Amino acid sequence: MNRRLVFVGDIHGEFREMIWKATQQYELRGADLVVLGDFGVGFDGKLKYDYGRAEKKMKEFDIEVYTIRGNHDDPDFFKDDDSEMSTLLGETYPKIHFLADHRVYKIGGKDIYTIGGGGSTDIKFRTPGKDWWGGEYIVEKPIKDLPGRVDIVISHEAPLTFEPVISRFDETPEEQYEKILAGRKYLETVLKEVRCEGWYYGHYHQHYSG
Questions:
Q1: Which of 29, 115, 136, 180 has its CB 3.0 to 4.6 Å from that of 155, i.e. a possible disulfide?
Q2: How many CB atoms neighbour CB 189 within 10 A?
Q3: CA–CA gap between residue 119 and residue 176 (Å, rounded)
Q4: From residue 68, how far is each of 119, 166, 187 by CA, in Å?
Q5: Residues 89, 92, 94, CA angle at the centre, nearest 5°?
Q6: Strands, sheet with 104-107, edge to edge from the N-terminal-most edge strand
Q7: CA distances (Å), 190 to each of 37, 79, 97, 144, 161, in order?
Q8: How far is CA 185 from CA 83, 140, 147, 160, 161, in A?
């Protein structure tokens, strides 16, 4: 029997609140929660505290958490090397899965293709290594190497023709805007090349559909 599959927008470090809502407010059981980037990993040691408080409920309700890389995540955490992950985290978190870019994972009975990363519009207000990392951008895999078909594609950023319409904010440097535009154009190409039933993305803190 397939598990329930739930997509979650940016939580920015509010891991325990997410688990509380999933188990107490929505009473989800046997569910896979997929965070669409900006999980909030790398900022401080908050995750260790939150996980310790939430793990009991996750086991009781059979909750697994998956997350892709957002522009507000340390990209070093999103690799396939489990031993390196253990070193970075200081310990393992059995019910949290940090998904690498451009992989197909079986989650909730679905084949899900992952594309993490994006550009920060507020880059000039951020400090490298503290709340910003140079590897925030989308990694562009050659089109010929993309999967022909999956059930679902997930990304942090949106393809160009998805909402919202791209615009440049006054505080965003022109060079950064060009990188954001290039990332959305790349995802638009992926949208045209990879057949899928649905595409889910985060980043914008609002609800869009199409």
A1: 115
A2: 14
A3: 7
A4: 15, 22, 15
A5: 135
A6: 104-107, 110-115, 152-155, 198-201
A7: 18, 21, 24, 10, 12
A8: 35, 11, 18, 5, 9
Q: Is the pLDDT of residue 86 over 50?
A: no
Contact 119, 73 (CB under 8 A): no
> Tokens 């892709």, residue?
68
User: pLDDT, tens digit, for every residue of 166-204?
Assistant: 999 999 999 999 999 999 999 999 999 999 999 999 999
Residues sharing a CB contact under 8 Å with residue 20, sequence separation 6 or more, in sequence order: 54, 57
* Residue 127 CB-density burial (10 A; 0-12 exposed, 13-18 middle, 19+ buried): exposed
The beta-strand segments (E) located in the chain are 4-8, 31-35, 63-67, 96-98, 104-107, 110-115, 152-155, 198-201
